[in-house]
Amino acid sequence: MASYVIAGKADDPAFARTEHCAKLIEAACPNVFFQYEMQHPDNWKDFISAVLRQYDFHGYSEDFAGPLVWTHEGELIGGSSDFVQKVCMEKFGIRDPPSMSDPVFKQIAADNLKQVRMKQFREQHGPPFAEKCEAACVAATGAGLITVQTFDERRRIVSRGASLEVWISSSAAAEHATNRETFGDGRPAEVDSSLKVCVLGQDTGSHGVYLHPRPLCRKQLALVPEWLVLQAAEAKAAKAAAAAAEAEAARVAAVEAAAAAAAEAKAAAAARRAAEGKEGEDEPVFEEEADPAEDAAGAAESAVPEQAEEPAAELLEIPPRSLVADSDADLSLPDFIAAIEVMQGVGGIATWTGLRGGSEFRNPIDTHVQVLPFPLHSQGEDCPLRFPLELLCDAAIRDEQNTLPVFPFPHALAPTSLPEAAPESKREQTKMLAQIALDTYEVLKHHLGSKDISCSLAFTPSWMLMMPLSPPDVSSAAHEVWLQFPPPPACCLCGIVAAPSVAPGFPETAGLPVGGSVGRMVSNRAIEERIPEGTPEYDAASREVRISARILDLPTEIMAVWASPPNPAQA
Asked: How far, CA to CA in Å, does 544 sit from each of 100, 171, 523?
């Protein structure tokens, strides 16, 4: 079996032609083996010098441009023309090999150079981000760390000429209640460290990228500021150290108390013997009593659990990003840099919901920026759209519109793509895109209300869409609606509206519409029964929420429940 080594620079069309001729031989003669040594141009001189020394090939200088061909036995064939003539044509009878002037070899050389650069990058930085995500997702799913949310029904609904989807979950209300009870006071969530894919954020490494443990779609990612996780870890360590110190103090106190009790008992016994006139007699010999200090130490040791055979999984604490607890926790440039880096790696849409009111109903990981990979719909692989409102968003940006006709409530759309005079460096482009996104975010907030509004946000590297929200005061009657029907995740701006199931109740069970003549989808008993405000019954009746089951067929009505009213200052 003949075998050859073909070495050359990746960007050399002559190497591409030699490789092509070798593949023609492989196709015609399956028993012939070729090894390809494709080198980056920067590494070629060192590589060829080492080969010439190793095999003692003469007639070639260190500046030889290549390619070079030899057998595995060390027999020199020569350059590209030597290989084509001696091996390709004379030995294996391949007639009319393609000419060196064929432009296809320039294209092959360009592709070869890309391949070598990718290999170098992989060797220096590991696999690409998309591969890291896929590998982490497969491993975490296999370990049972990820459970994609299930929905009882996914309805596809056309509204104002646009197609949207409503994903209905009968377990959402219970999950919201559990989240309020567990995390409502700002406690962090614990996630397995295996869900952390990597750290991103250019030089600063500002954000950890986590696979969502309860994602809406496969490979949903949460971008959590590293300083928040570090702060939580430090607080946890300090708490553990304080608990350990308290336990040690309690152990020492117990030992000292036991020793004092033993000394007191011994003194009492001596006094008793003195009173009985037996002071000079020898003390009776009893079975030796254990040292109280040793008893306490032994009890402390026995309280330490045996070391498990396998170490427990490391849990990381993810604190919430709360605008209620910290009004300065708004999005900043590092957030947009990290989000754009993720979207450049895996595609998708970044979303975020910032709430400055209402009780918290989300898991802490949901309070951070999310990236939902494409495709984001339930229409299957045959659907050409990446998300339901893709065509509508593209048309609005193309026509320089700042709203979408499908949404009847206040919102704003703006382009965020790079200008024509953008830098060539991908790194600088990312930073410029992030700055444009941050500037657009601030402009949209002021346009829709103020810099301190609550909002749902969706953005890509080319556009941003914002919807202002009006969370209720936790003491108000409207908060009762919030408890049952909070705002949907921000992916609703892309056309995916996730909502809790709504069972028909009175007055719908009696054949009457909720809201009476007003036709509201969300109402209360005070409105239904026209109980006047200020009457003794009004307050209780206004807190008896009634939600029409028909709202699940009206996705924009679901979104409009907590949408801010129009701002009179808007143009």
From this structure: 83, 21, 9
**d(Cα 351, Cα 395) in Å, to the nearest integer?**
21
Supply the mean pLDDT for the chain.
88
Query: What's the one-letter identity of residue 505?
Result: G
Percent over 90 (pLDDT), the chain: 63
Question: Residue 110 in contact with residue 16, Cβ under 8 Å?
Answer: no
Please, are residues 77 and 71 in contact by the beta-carbon 8 Å criterion? yes
Find out whether the peptide bond into 375 is cis, omega within 30 degrees of 0.
Answer: yes
pTM confidence score: 0.75
**CB contact at 8 A, 350 and 458:** yes
Angle at the Cα of 16 from the Cα atoms of 14 and 19, rounded to 5 degrees: 110
Which residues 6+ apart lie within 8 Å of 470 measured at CB?
454, 562, 563, 564, 565
Sign of the torsion angle spanned by Cα atoms 66, 67, 72, 73 = negative
Residue 294 has pLDDT above 70, yes or no: no
Residue 49 identity: S
C-beta of residue 279 within 8 angstroms of C-beta of residue 313: no
Q: Which of 233, 143, 234 is nearest to 195 (CA)?
A: 143
CA distance 545 to 536: 18
pLDDT in tens, 519-541: 678 988 898 888 999 999 999 99
Instruction: Give the dihedral of Cα atoms 431, 432, 433, 438; nearest 10 deg.
Output: 90
d(CA 277, CA 294): 34
**Res. 270: pLDDT tops 90:** no
Distance CA 458, CA 471 (A): 19
